[in-house]
Design a protein that fits this description.
With about 170 residues, the protein is of the alpha+beta class. The protein folds into two domains: about 40 residues, Arc Repressor Mutant, subunit A (Orthogonal Bundle), CATH 1.10.10.10; about 80 residues, Lrp/AsnC effector binding domain/regulation of amino acid metabolism (RAM) domain (Alpha-Beta Plaits, 2-Layer Sandwich). Helices cover about 35% and strands about 20% of the residues. The protein is built from five helices and four strands. A four-stranded antiparallel sheet has the order 2-3-1-4. The longest helix is centred in the first third of the chain and has 13 residues. It is elongated, with a radius of gyration of 21 Å.
């Protein structure tokens, strides 16, 4: 690893990232639609090298995909909520039943299986507070696997850093 790399500790079984990988990732996190030519210029490498290294980062599982980020309010889903869910029992059948059904529901943006006082946190987006109420009633409150829910409205969602952590020196 070069001396100006940020000493990122890779997960077990992964090669460490070097400074070029880090610059590629930072540029792609900032703008995933950047052209390969622009990416190469920004990072200071040849376009063929940028393409090869970006593909290698994908092949290594570091880049997991590219997606369009939509304005939820512009598509009629302006009410967001975080819903804490506690299951009635913690047997494999109930966990599998919940995790095979709920994350696939159209309103669900993310599902987190957690430790602590709740088993799952759901991030959902719907059109109205009435839709939120109905969604909770139809999909959680009437589910025999679910023991308790607590819903928190989201006023604003600010994205954090999705790239490598900066140098801690």
């Amino acid at each position: 690893m070069s001396s100006n790399a940020k000493n990122i500790r890779p997960a077990a079984g992964h090669e460490p990232l070097d400074a070029i990988d880090e610059r590629l990732l930072a540029a792609l996190v900032d703008d995933a639609r950047i052209s390969n030519k622009q990416l190469a210029e920004l990072v200071g490498i040849a376009p063929s090298t940028a393409l090869m290294r970006t593909r290698a980062l994908s092949d290594r599982g570091i880049i997991q995909g590219f997606e369009a980020k939509l304005s939820l309010s512009a598509i009629g889903r302006s009410v967001q909520a975080l819903i804490a869910v506690r299951l009635r029992a913690h047997d494999r059948e109930q966990i599998d039943r919940f995790t095979s059904r709920v994350p696939k529901l159209p309103a669900v943006l993310s599902t987190f299986h957690t430790s602590g006082s709740v088993d799952y946190l759901l991030h959902i987006a719907v059109a109205t507070t009435e839709d939120l109420r109905d969604w909770v009633l139809d999909n959680l409150a009437t589910d025999p696997v679910v023991g308790h829910t607590e819903t928190t409205l989201v006023f604003d969602h600010m994205q954090g850093n999705h790239g490598p952590l900066p140098d801690q020196d």
